Amino acid sequence: MPEDTGNHDLAPGVLTEYLDEDSGIFVRSAHQFERFRSPYQSVEVHDTRPFGKLFRLDGHFMTSEKDEFFYHENLVHVAAMAHPAPESALIVGGGDGGSAEELLKYPTMKSVTLVEIDLAVIDIARKYFADIHRGALSDPRLKLSVEDGLGFVRATNESFDLIVLDLTDPGGPSEPLYGSDFYRACAARLNPSGAMTLHVASPIAHPERIRKGIANLRAAFAVVVPYLTSIPLYGGLWMMACASSTLNPSYLTSLEADRRIATRRIRDLQYYNGDVHRASFALPNFVRELVA
Amino acid sequence: MPEDTGNHDLAPGVLTEYLDEDSGIFVRSAHQFERFRSPYQSVEVHDTRPFGKLFRLDGHFMTSEKDEFFYHENLVHVAAMAHPAPESALIVGGGDGGSAEELLKYPTMKSVTLVEIDLAVIDIARKYFADIHRGALSDPRLKLSVEDGLGFVRATNESFDLIVLDLTDPGGPSEPLYGSDFYRACAARLNPSGAMTLHVASPIAHPERIRKGIANLRAAFAVVVPYLTSIPLYGGLWMMACASSTLNPSYLTSLEADRRIATRRIRDLQYYNGDVHRASFALPNFVRELVA
After folding, report:
1. Could B50 and A20 be called an inter-chain contact, meaning their C-beta atoms sit closer than 8 Å?
2. pLDDT tens digits for A235-260?
3. Does residue A9 carry a catalytic annotation?
4. Distance of residue B30 Cα from the nearest chain A Cα, in angstroms
C-alpha cells in the first residue's frame, strides 16, 4: 500500500496532482479539515477557492464540490441513458455517493448497491460532501456494503442492469479491480442488456494505461466503447469506457438522449445533454490509435 | 505592460500556469534555453519531459512541441474545413508558425499573411520550434509582417477568406485585440463567405471572459459559433469560436468533413477528424448557459 504522498506537494498547502513525474495540476488549500490514515489509505479534506471542499486519498485528488459533476455525470449517464430502463445498479467504490446520486435520478431505479471498502470514505462524505451525494447515502433504495469489491462481485448471486466502477487509480487498494479477471466477474453479474461503466486514464499522460485497460475490457466484454470527457480535478481530457455484451451507448442519438432526459425527468444536469452524449464518442486521431 | 511573471512559479524550475489565483498547471523545466525581454514581453524557452520544448511569454505558457497540435489544429481546421475553398488567410499573432503550418496544408491556399508584433517570437520559433512551424515560416506563400495587428487590420485594403487570431491572453500587448472595435475591423476584412477563428478562454476558470468575449463577437458578426477543445498546456477544456457573416461550421457534417480532409489531402492530423469537428460544437449545460 503506498504511503501518504501528500508530502509530494510542490509547496506547503499547494495540493498537487501529478499527471506524470514532471507535470500536473495544483490547488491551494485554504484550510485543512481532515488528515488521517484509515485502515486502507490516507484521507484528507481541504477547503479550496477554485474547487470548494476537496477530497484526497493517498495524496490523490478524488473529487470536489465544484467539479464533481464533470466526473459523476459522465461516468453514469452515458451508459444509464442508453439503457432502456435501468432498475438495478452496483457501484464498486464511489463511497462519496456522487455516482449513487446520479443513478438514483432514474425513476425506474429500484436498487443501488454501493460496495465501498473503506468506511472512512463514507463517513467523510456524510460529514463534508452533502453537496455531492445530496442525500443519496440515505436514500431507501441504496444498499451500503462496506467490503472489498472484488470479494463482493465474486460472491454475489445478484445481477444488475448497470455496474459503475468508481475507483481510485490503479496502484492503491483498487489495483486488483483493473484486471480482466475482475472484469469477467463483473460481466457475469450483468443482466443481458446491462452495461458496466468506468474511468480509464488520461489519453495524454497515460497512453499505456489506456492500451492495457481497453485490452483488459475487450478480454471480458463483446462491446467496449471508449469515450472522452474533461475532468478539471484530474487535469483535463480523460477516457471513460462503457462495456457490455450487447449495449452500445454510441447508438443512442442526440435527439433520443434528450427525449429520455425529459421523459425520465432527469434533473440537475450541469454537464450531460444529448449533444454531449454523442460528442463523447468522437475520438481525436491520436486517441483512435491508442484504442485501435 | 506586465512585468515578467516567471517569478510566480511555485518553486524554482517549476513552470507554473495559473488558471485562477489558487489553481493551475505546472511543468518541471529540465533546461532553460532562453530567458530575455523583447521590446514587448518576456520570452522564455525551456526543455521539459512531458511537453518537449516549451515557450512562455510574460510567464504564460504559449505552446509546446508535444501538445501544439491540440491548439493549432482546432484553432484552424474547424473554420478552414467548413470554408468551401480557402485561398487567403490572415493570422494576427501566431509568430510560432503553428497556425500558418495548418493553413498552408490547404491546396487551395495561395497566400497566408502573418502579422506578429514581436520579431523575437519569430526568431525563437525559427531557432527552437521547427517541429511546430515545419517550414511554414519559409513557405513562399507566407507573407511575414512584423507590426501591430490592430494597425495592420485597420490600414489594409486586402480581404481574406480566413482570419485567425492567434494571440496571447488579454492583459498583455494583445489587450486591444479582444474588443468589439477590433472584431468589427476584422469583419470588414473578410470575404463574403469568410470566417474568423480565435481562442476565447476556459469556460471553467474564466466564465466572465467567455461571456464578454462572445458578446463582443456578437456585436461584430452575424454568426458566432462557440466550440470546445482540450488543450493540455492551458489546463484542459478551452473555448474557441468561429465568427462570420455567413459561414456556420456546425453545418458541416462529420462525413463531409472527412471527405474534405481526404479530397483536400490534409495530412498529419493528430487530433482533428470529422467526428471531432461535429463534437466540438456540443456544449455542456453549464457552457450553454455562459454563451446563451
Report:
1. yes
2. 999 999 999 999 999 999 999 999 99
3. no
4. 9
Maximum Cα–Cα distance across chain A: 51
State yes or no: pLDDT of B226 exceeds 80. yes
**Alpha carbon distance, N-terminus to C-terminus of chain A:** 33
* C-beta pairs of A81-84 under 8 Å, 24+ apart in sequence: A81/A249, A81/A252, A81/A257, A81/A260, A81/A261, A81/A264, A81/A266, A81/A272, A81/A277, A82/A195, A82/A242, A82/A247, A82/A248, A82/A249, A82/A251, A82/A252, A82/A257, A83/A161, A83/A162, A83/A193, A83/A194, A83/A195, A83/A247, A84/A193
Residues B34 and B89 in one domain: no
A1 within a domain of the structure (yes/no): no
Q: A206 and A128 in one domain?
A: yes
Q: Same structural domain for residues A51 and A99?
A: no
Q: Do A158 and A44 fall into the same domain? A: no
> What's the CATH number where A14 sits?
2.30.140.10
Compare all CA atoms of chain B with the CA of A269 and give the residue at the minimum distance.
B285
Q: Is residue A81 domain-shared with residue A215, that is, in the same domain? A: yes
Query: B112, B168, B115, B167: which is closest to B135 by C-alpha?
Result: B112
Count of Cβ atoms closer than 10 Å to residue A208 Cβ: 9
Q: Is residue B47 part of a domain?
A: yes
Q: CA-to-CA distance for A7 and A44, rounded, in angstroms?
A: 12
Do A24 and A140 fall within a single domain? no
At residue A174, the pLDDT reads: 87
ipTM of this predicted structure: 0.96
Residues in chain A predicted with pLDDT less than 70, given as ranges, are 1-7
- Name the pairing type of β-strands A236-244 and B14-20: unpaired
Q: Is A127 helix (H, G, I), strand (E, B) or coil?
A: helix
pTM: 0.96
Range of B167's domain?
68-291
Using the Cα atoms of residue B109, residue B111, residue B117 and residue B118 in order, give the sign of their dihedral.
Answer: positive
User: Domain check: are B148 and B233 in the same one?
Assistant: yes
Q: Is residue A67 within 8 Å of B237, Cβ to Cβ?
A: no
Residues of A at the B interface, defined by Cβ within 8 angstroms: 10-11, 14, 16, 19-28, 30, 48-51, 67, 69, 204-205, 230, 232, 235-237, 269-273, 275-276, 278-286, 288
Check if the beta carbon of residue A258 is closer than 8 Å to that of residue A274: yes
- Across B77-141, the runs of DSSP E, i.e. the strands, are 88-93, 111-116
